[in-house]
Amino acid sequence: MKNAEIAQLFQEMAEMLAFLGENPFRVRAYTQAARTLADLETPIEAIAAQGEEALQALPSIGPDLAAKIQEYLRTGTLQAHSKLAQQVPAGVLEVLRVPGVGPKTARLLWERLGVDSLEKLQAVLASKQVLGLPGFGEKKRQRLLENLALAETATQRRPLGAVLGQARALLEQVRAQPGVLQAEICGSFRRYRETVGDLDFLIATLTPAQVLEALVRLPGIVDVEAVGENRATVFLQGGLQVDFKTVPPAAWGSGLQYLTGSKAHSIKLRTLAQKQGLKLNEYGVWRGETRLAGEDEAGVYRALGLPWIPPPLREDNGEIEAAQAGQLPRLVQLEEVRGDLQVHSRWSDGKATLLELAQAAQKLGYAYLAVTDHSQSLKVAHGVPLDRVQARLREIRKVNEKTGGRPYLLAGAEVEVAADGSLDYPEPVLRELEVVLVAVHSHFNLSRAQQTRRLLRALEHPCVHILAHPTARMLGVRKGLEADWEKIFRRAKALGKALEIDGYYDRMDLPDTLARQAGGMGVLFALSTDAHQLDHLRFMELAVGTAQRAWLEPAQILNTRPLTALLDWLREVRR
Ligand code: DGT
Ligand code: CA
Ligand code: CA
Ligand code: ZN
Question: Domain Polymerase/histidinol phosphatase N-terminal, which positions (predicted)?
Fold first, then answer.
């Protein structure tokens, strides 16, 4: 599927247009179209096959962009992109992607200092040459140096949710190849790490040479680095690395165990095997020349005297000890989630109507959905102003009447927390909402003490239920807030309020490690997707993956409860 390829071309066009000083509306049109394509789960080819109208029905795709998509699908190139690329020096796009470098700055850096690569940017920042440029002070220099380091790690590791579609589409192609008996994506992907360095495909086959020859020719693979007898390394459009590894079917389970890792987990398992006079490798569990296990993964763990350990736990963070003691957690599962507790509709910056959201949630089998549009002062996200609050509540009630409350839309809001911890709606408005989330979208750089006070004050407000995306980090863009998390977790527990695990792919917030700490302290969690369009509802999988990495059980998750229990809890918190 060509979604990622076209998304990347549009994104590059937006960046080049911005660099050339073009009309911001044109730039935005390409950015939004890129977003639409990147978020789309259906192959764009399938939509294009239904005709021009189907393409134009996609958010942010008009006649012009629809024609460009058709052009690319037909010819494999995009003329408008090539033309722009002739006007913009190569390497400038990388510079532009450093957070804090806007088009104007990039242009200035290029014209005055010849900056056309990240290396040159690093050099002129380090040598302080930039200080002579208009608008460049020491503070900005420092900030860009920090951001440059962040951007570099971001190009190496990608958010899991950003590669999910591309990875699964490739998996389908791999499984369809003749000679492939089984295939699975292992590594950090299977462990639901928030970012992945590359994708590791395990393939069971009796004919590895032929299968690998065919796999490296699959469409979507743009570069082949190495092909060996039982492994190959390739690169996908956009630069993502994929490792293919083959094993015979008798070693499928041990191959899964090996390639899923983590390395630290596997090393500890091998030591455990040695202590029992056994040997563990990717081909099985062995006593001398005899293979005791290898065909299935549970059998490998069983041969070592252990229950099967779910991949998200495999980080050598105590899971092997817990398994030995028979004390593995009973991890929460995606099917146990009965509703999404943060989604945005057209009443703020979401793309879908309340009714569309309700219908999509019904398809997912949800019993409820908290619609949590932004509050008034978040202007960039079209926060709902006070004079629209009542009209919105009326529409929520109307949709519930129409659907018979299946799923039940909970009237909620994601309310801004000001720098001093005060909230963005007056108390009578908050009282009318059934569920109130509070969240930080500004003043990220307060001191640790101020930030802690701010979050505590927000959490303590009598109308508040859930602290949403608590650290406010954005993967590859912004580190989380500095705060005394232990203190905040303790207060949340004492107040009986919930912390969110926001599964939107560039947030993933709370992060797994903090969530595990909070879970260990008995804090309750709300899982959400922070969806801004229907397609985002699928990110619940990532919220659940993070919850699993945090060792969380269903009873620790608010939205595994049935609707009546949830409503009871929402009222109880306010008593
Ligand atoms: P990533 O790609 O950085 O997000 O993280 P992983 O965990 O996917 O790591 P990767 O791709 O380098 O290797 C995939 C798996 O292969 C890893 O999880 C465990 C296994 N593996 C790699 N190197 C070693 C090693 O030296 N010893 C053992 N036992 N396993 C290894
Ligand atoms: Ca990997
Ligand atoms: Ca790898
Ligand atoms: Zn938010």
Answer: 339-419
Fold observed for domain 251-325? Beta Polymerase; domain 3 (3.30.210)
**Ligand 1 in contact with 188 (CB < 6 A)?**
yes
Look at the domain 2-155 and name its fold. DNA polymerase; domain 1 (1.10.150)
Cα–Cα distance, 416 to 461 (Å, whole number): 13
Q: Where are the domains of the chain?
A: 2-155, 158-247, 251-325, 334-573
Nearest CA to ligand 1 atom 19: 261
- The token duo for 321 is 């000890």
Looking at residue 266, its amino acid is S
- For ligand 1, atom 24, the nearest C-alpha belongs to 263
pTM metric for this prediction: 0.80
Q: Is cis: bond before 442, omega within 30 of 0? A: no
Atom 8 (ligand 1): residue with closest C-alpha?
187
Q: Which ligand is nearest to the CA of 199?
A: 2
For domain 334-573, give its CATH number from 3.20.20.140, 3.40.30.10, 3.40.1440.10, 3.90.1210.10.
3.20.20.140
> What's the half-sphere exposure (Cβ side, CA atoms, 13 Å) at 454?
24
Could you write out the three-class secondary structure of 30-89? HHHHHHHHHHCCCCHHHHHHCCHHHHHCCCCCCHHHHHHHHHHHHHCCCHHHHHHHHHCC
For ligand 1, is residue 187 a contact (CB within 6 Å)? yes
pLDDT tens digits for range 97-149: 787 888 889 999 999 999 999 889 999 999 999 998 888 899 989 988 888 87
261 lines ligand 1 (CB under 6 A): yes
Q: CB neighbours (10 Å) of residue 447?
A: 10
Q: What are phi and psi of 72, to 5 degrees?
A: -65, -40
454-505 pLDDT, tens digit each: 999 999 999 999 999 999 999 988 999 999 999 999 999 999 999 999 999 9
Please work out whether the CB of residue 266 comes within 6 Å of at least one atom of ligand 1: yes
